[in-house]
Amino acid sequence: MTARSTATAPSATYGAVLGSRYVARLLGGTLIGRLPNGMVPVSLVLWISAGGGSLAFAGLLAALYGLASGLSQPLKGRLMDKYGQTRVSVPAVLLNSSCLVALPWIGAAGQSAAVTAVVGFAGVITPPLEAGLRALWPAVLPDAGRRRVVQALDTGSQGLLYIVGPLLASWLATAHNPDIALWATAALGLAGSAIVLSAGPSRYWRPAADGPSGTGRLMSAGLVLLFTALAGTGFALGAMNVWAADMAATHQMATLSGVLPAAFSTSSFLGGLVYARRTWPGTTTTQLITTSTLFLLGWLPLLADPGPRAAVALAGIPGLFLTLIITNGFHVVDALAPASRTTEAYAWLILSVGTGQAAGTALAGALSDSPQILAVLPAAGAATALTVLIVARPKLGPGRRLGRHRRPRRSRQHTPLPHDAFPAPAHGPGH
């Protein structure tokens, strides 16, 4: 029995997962397609500044793009659940890229109303690649062990977008000009989206049916509380960015404003790699609360007002647990949301984190004259998230042990893909 199980169980190593058909293509394409999320704000600021506009107007445009993109995610997720990924994301990415390309032709000077309208529209129609990718994994990787690995890789790599994206936009704008940065941003969005949307799993994906007893109703008390808790997690991230800028000003080290968030994001990626390598005890709900507790404890050493070097090292401690929180949050959503509306539910989770992050940035900015309070805000956000999760635990359900997927294999999402959805020989073990 043991020999047979060993022979038939698919390997869940990183090499095996990334070598599985379509995995590297979908993951890599989504990361490329989402680079504009990190590039557009920087590109807009540099473009407006180079054209003689004010930093206040540039900041307003950057905030408008992010806000419009975030608030429109659930609607785009709902449309994707109804019409499929291709019919929603293809026109979205074409229009989004067209808007970015059009900005240099409009001009940064003297056309503030037109520029504002185009930037806002571009934000609204950003393609929902992240939520769409999450919806694809059960069909691409039916094995739960491999799916757990790729989901951790997926979540952990998101933070790298906000390191690579701003750096790339800054380099293009300074080495060439801000127009080139905007055009390159549009091109990367098109290229990444094309890689994902032309793949068979994306072209043929349809949501699973709810079943005879399913109501299709999305928002339950458990999901509302979960999204509220994750907004607290996002609040900690937003407050951290302002705290990092304050640390840079206090110690007269401008690089700290970028190094501290980079240390956090890098640690988050590494934490995801460690987490995905083994199966951990407890249900997803238990793991979500445990990792949220560790996330809170990770912020506490920063309250001691450490020096620059110590702060960089300490910023990595809470970062270790961010990927774990978001990954388990997605698993809880998967267990609570109706099968026909999973993409929309994933989009609500993404929006909740982003909204909390914006709130954390805004409040920390308003309190920037009080350095001691700034150091407390990330921990306050983490504490709020943990408190809500503890209160919500009975409504999050008993949970499931990682590695088990709640949807029946005969659902539309898993089996009726046309044969050409997965053409060509398998690339990895077990296929």
UniProtKB/TrEMBL annotation:
Organism: Streptomyces virginiae
Record-linked Gene3D superfamilies: MFS general substrate transporter like domains
Cited InterPro entries: MFS (IPR011701), MFS_trans_sf (IPR036259)
Domain of life of the native organism: Bacteria
PANTHER family the UniProt entry points to: MAJOR FACILITATOR SUPERFAMILY (MFS) PROFILE DOMAIN-CONTAINING PROTEIN (PTHR23542:SF1), PTHR23542
This protein's UniProt keywords: Membrane, Transmembrane, Transmembrane helix
Region entry Disordered, spans: 399-431
Transmembrane segments: 44-67, 88-107, 113-137, 149-174, 180-200, 221-244, 256-276, 288-304, 310-333, 345-367, 373-392
Basic residues bias locations: 401-413
Key word Hydrolase present: no
Protein name as it appears in the record: MFS transporter
